[in-house]
Design goal:
heterodimer; A: 76% helix; elongated; B: mainly alpha; two-stranded antiparallel sheet
Amino acid sequence: MIPLSWYLIFAAALFCIGLYTVLVRRNAIIILMGIELMLNAVNVNLVAFWRYVNPQLIAGQVFAVMVFAVAAAEVAVGLAIFISLYRRRNTVAADEVDLMKW
Amino acid sequence: MTIESMIWLIPLAPILAFFIIVLFTNRSKWLSHTLAILAALTSAVMVFWLISKVLSTEHFGEHPIQSYLPWFPAGDSWFTISVLVDPLTILTLFFVAVTILMIFIYSVGYHNFGAPKGDHDRPGLQPHGATVSDAHGHKHTVMSIEPMYSRFFAFFGLFAFGMYLLVTTGNLLVLFIGWEIMGLCSYLLIGFWFAKPSARAAGIKAFLTTRVADVLMLLGIAYLYFATGTLNYKEIFVPEVLEGLAATPAIGNILGLSAAGLIGILIVIGTIGKSSQWPLHVWLPDAMEGPTPVSAMIHAATMVSAGVYLVIRFFPLLSAGWDGHGLTAPMQLMAFIGTFTAIFAATIAIAQNDVKRVLAYSTISQLGFMIAALGIGGYIAAAFHLMTHAFFKALLFLGSGSVIHGVEHGVLHTGDHIDPQDMFNMGGLRKKMPVTFWTFLVGGFALAGFPILTAGFWSKDEILADAFIHQHWPVFITLAVAALITAFYTMRQITLTFLGQPRTKAAEHAHESHWTMTLPLVILAIFAVVIGWAGIPEEFPVLGGILPNVVHVVGESLPEHPEAIPFNWLPLLTSIVVSLGGLFLGWLVYRNVKAGQPDPLAKPLGPIWTVLKNKYYFDELYDYIFVRPAKWMAEDFAIWMDTNVIDGILHGIASVGPILGSFFRNYIDKPIVNGFGDWIADVTRKMGVSLRVIQTGRIQQYMLMALVSLVAFGVVFYLLLVQ
């Protein structure tokens, strides 16, 4: 059986890739995809811990499903924002959208 | 109803009348005077019922009627008040009830009840008369009704309440309350015509003069309470307490007096003020400014009698330590003040022309007789003279009011502007006003002590006999001379007023007063004769012993009953001679005074006359010593003090304010408070300026910062806590 640490390393790597994507890419769609990566890295962690530490309880899986649901909702909202943004400013580049600047 | 509870209720009716008149019935003149008279009648009926009860009691004096009531808690005990009815109370109640009732009835006529409203009358001024036209269309000026009729009867109710309260109580503090109520009423009634400046001044004078004495008396009351712990007479007038007081030296050893002596002197001072003795006599003649029934009320029934009643009541205390020889200090004071006042006021009365003023000075003089009698230990004589004097002086005042009324009528009729109170404007009134004349004659003869017939003779004779038997020669001689002068000025008054021919048109047109005024005169005249028979000495030749000597029962009010004075011809002859001699001289000198003629005595007496006329200049003296300095203090000095000292202090304080203010502003507010506030604002702004640089608005930079911070916190957390 594959040891737990492998899963954890995998999840950490996935998370770092997602984080890196969020921090450096300009395209907002790509940033959204980075966020999805980070969320799924967490899911991997959840499921791995459930399977290795406490397999008789269902809480870990439920948690993962909930994260999927939240991620789906978040993407839906995020994409709607980007479409609206694109219609107004004709761009989805994150560094051009500095509306919150003082 | 038990007899005790009824005694408590004697003063109730007049005070009820006072409140009802003031609150409800003051618009109805008829209802107001009916209520007041009914109240006086109720009290009088209760008094007479009480007297009838008491007369049937054997040895009543040794078992007086008493009733106690706790009033308020005083420390760990109760302050009890009481009523006390002993022979002295009965004697006083008797004349008080009769005179008050008579004066009440008389006031109805005096204030012209039933007369029309005056043309120009307004509250606070005497009625000026009203114009009426008769059936033939002739216009007449007649007397008009008093505008403040109801108020007058309300005040009288309160006045009567004060007197009844004072007499029935067995407690000195309650007595003082009644005393002060009467002081207030005298002020209100003397100044009844308050729009007249002289009446106003007289009211204030009466109030302030008696106040001087009352304050000292209150000190005496306080000392008495301090020394004995009670103010009930019956608890004070027991031999042990009195001997204790006489043996203790007074607080601070003032003048080497005993406690009893000091308290006694303070109480006597209260009487000197209230009974208008020298040197506080100045208010009483001015009190004539009030309506005449007020004068009768003050000078006969109530106020001044209350003063004498007080010293008679407190005789056991005043004489504490007296063994029949060597008078105590309060008694010496009374003997001196009384004797001096008797002759002093009598001499002034000779030179007065105002019919009421003569009577005022005769009151002062007669009160002096009583005080002097008490000073030499003549307890019964003083009480007897107090009673007879109340009757004949009430009669004389009411009579003089009737005379003035009659002359005023003449003044209104003729339209002459003459003083209706000046005796030199009168004369010949005996035919115009017969009832007034005969009753006034009785009263005047009683005042002069006309032998055998009148009450004044018996009581004055008793005083003189007392002084003679106990060999107080200065007192005896002075009082005899005073009695001579009294008879003289009384006859002068009667002659000038009633005898001879009218000296003015107004006197010619005077006419007899209404029956409400003459009826009380007649009743009082009967008393002024009959009441003397109650005190005929038992050893008196022929007459003695026919009637029981009721007045001697008063002596039973004392712990040790005074003995009846042995009979002696000398004082009797003296009093007969001075009385008849004075009356004859008065008639002789004044029988032929013509209109416009000066007083026949003015020329022979010369400067002495001027001094007497001006009442020994006491008013002027007091004006210089007390009134002017007081006014100077109140006006000039106070203004100087106000503008210079008080304003100066205020201005000084005010100018310190700005100096302090600018100091605080320049050295504390500006640098410290404002500086701190500005600094905070400045720092905040600078921080804002430096921090706005990181607000780029780029989401990725924010996230990077969040990541870096998170990592940094994590490292710190790890280093600090986990390791």
